Amino acid sequence: MASIESFIKSPSEALLNVLSKGQLWELVEHYGIGDVDKRLKKNELKTVLKVKLSEEEILSVANEEVIEEKESVDLFSGLSFEQKKEILKMQQMHSREMANVVKERELELKRLKMDDLLKKREIELLQLKHSQQLESEKLSRDFELQVQRLKLIGEGKMPFEGVPSQERVSRSFDVVGNLKLLPKFNERDPDVFFSLFESIAEERNWPIADRVVMLQSVITGRAQEAYMALTVEDRKDYDKVKSTILRVYELVPEAYRQRFRSWRRGERQTHVEVGRELTAHFDRWCAASNCPLRRWRAWQPATLFRRSCC
């Protein structure tokens, strides 16, 4: 601990700050500083010493600090203990009020930010609903146009590249009536779509050329892009159109293997349909694997056929 002698020999603010309250009172007596309230706390006593010693040019401290501390001393000088206590209470109350004001402003700022965020979300939601409505209206218009086009094709009033010219007028095909029977194209599982599509086509005895017409009316997304990428001649070939679309949605070999292994016969499926679908699943597995599994074709589907039909 620093001693009074050290401070008297070489006065400094640093030494003054480490002196005890008792040592500070000894300095008051040493330098003959009068009119000092005995009830002052250590920090208040230290402030009085700094001001008095700086006025006597015994201690050198920063001017701003001296002025601030001098004002503090002048404020409390001549006041009674009760008056000082009341002033401190008022200062504490003011500090609490200011803290509450700051908190209220922070809460208000957060509330405004939250309101802005909610408004942005509402605008985004309205924009999304509007875009969805526009998309729905567009799909509805496209569907109506497609129905009208197919109706005209069926009546022979509009040529279609997939139907031979000699058949366009002579043959009547109920495009609109059959269009209602078509399953919705599913990009997640095009294999199932084609299975349902071909079942309906065989049940209704659709000609091959008309299958392309009907298929064109329901495909969407990547399937439609794949169809449009074909040549005019290839678009007339149902098998080529089908294989091209399925190739776009090819999965990894393991997915085809699991489909082949886990496939089961539906309630309304005939044995012929069961055999055809098992063979199709197996062929896709072979094609995706790029390995000579086709030699098992005569055995694997037959084995699973018996298990699937049990």
Structure summary:
The chain contains 16 helices and no strands.
For the structure shown, list the relevant keywords.
single chain; 310 residues; mainly alpha; 3 domains; 16 helices; 71% helix
Most strands sheet:
none
Shape: rod-shaped
Helix content: over 70%
Average pLDDT: 75
Low-confidence stretches: 63-69, 161-171
Number of strands: 0
Structural class determined from secondary elements: mainly alpha
Please give the domain count. 3
Characterization of this structure:
The chain has helices spanning 4-9, 13-18, 21-31, 42-55, 63-76, 81-154, 165-170, 175-179, 190-203, 208-216, 221-229, 232-235, 238-248, 253-262, 271-289, 300-308. Helix content is 71%, strand content 0%. It has 310 residues and is mainly α. The protein has 3 domains: 4-78, no CATH class; 92-158; 174-308, no CATH class. The longest helix has 74 residues, at 81-154. The model is unreliable at 63-69 and 161-171 (pLDDT under 50). It contains 16 helices and no strands.
Strands, helices and their partners?
Layout: H1 4-9, H2 13-18, H3 21-31, H4 42-55, H5 63-76, H6 81-154, H7 165-170, H8 175-179, H9 190-203, H10 208-216, H11 221-229, H12 232-235, H13 238-248, H14 253-262, H15 271-289, H16 300-308
